[in-house]
């Protein structure tokens, strides 16, 4: 399993703790420190089965200041998430060809 994690986020910390409590073997990816490649974001979206706009954190200042009032293609949204990792909803847990957004953290249990 892989968790895309932001240690500053309480939901992300709760999600990681849930995985640890379940003794899951997990790779932690701190995507704020190491931004995801465009192709990696596309792969996550495919596993989640959602549109790029649904992975965006719309309350982030960068979204409100730079993107909110623009018509953006899926490619532009993916590029925005690559350029501004804070825009990516968190945590995301991936297991094989499935993924969930850990909001609420209980969503992660579906992968255990």
In total, how many domains does the architecture comprise?
A: 1
Low-confidence residue ranges:
none
Q: Roughly what fraction of the amino acids lie in strands? A: 5-15%
SSE order = EHEHHHEE
Total strand segments: 4
Q: Main β-sheet: number of strands, strand sense, barrel status? A: 4 strands, mixed
Number of helices: 4
Using the coordinates above, name the CATH class: Alpha Beta
Measured distance between first and last alpha carbons: 9 Å
Annotated CATH homologous superfamily: Glutaredoxin
Question: Reading side by side through the largest sheet, how are the strands ordered?
Answer: 2-1-3-4
Mean pLDDT: 97
CATH level-two architecture: 3-Layer(aba) Sandwich
Classification by helices and strands: alpha+beta
What share of residues is helical?
25-40%
Output the radius of gyration: 14 Å
Outline: globular
Q: Assign the CATH topology.
A: Glutaredoxin
Write the layout of secondary structure elements.
Layout: E1 2-5, H1 10-21, E2 27-30, H2 38-48, H3 61-67, H4 74-83, E3 92-95, E4 98-101
Parallel strand pairs: 1-2
Antiparallel strand pairs: 1-3, 3-4
Main attributes of the structure:
112 residues, alpha+beta, Glutaredoxin, four-stranded mixed beta sheet, 4 helices, 4 strands, globular
Provide structural commentary.
With 112 residues, the protein is α+β, with helices and mostly antiparallel strands. It has a single domain (2-111), classed as Glutaredoxin (3-Layer(aba) Sandwich). It has four helices and four strands. It has a four-stranded mixed β-sheet with strand order 2-1-3-4. Strand 1 (2-5), helix 1 (10-21) and strand 2 (27-30) form a beta-alpha-beta unit. The longest helix is centred in the N-terminal third of the chain and has 12 residues, at 10-21. It is globular and about 45 Å long.
């Amino acid at each position: 399993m892989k968790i895309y994690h932001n240690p500053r986020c309480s939901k992300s910390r709760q999600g990681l703790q849930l995985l640890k409590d379940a003794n899951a073997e997990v790779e932690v990816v701190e995507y704020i420190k190491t931004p995801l490649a465009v192709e990696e974001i596309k792969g996550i979206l495919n596993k989640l089965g959602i549109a790029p706009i649904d992975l965006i954190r719309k309350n982030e200042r960068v979204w409100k200041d730079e993107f909110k009032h623009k018509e953006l293609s899926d490619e532009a949204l993916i590029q925005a998430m690559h350029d501004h990792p804070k825009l990516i909803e968190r945590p995301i847990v991936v297991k094989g060809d499935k993924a969930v957004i850990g909001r609420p953290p209980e969503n992660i249990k579906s992968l255990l």
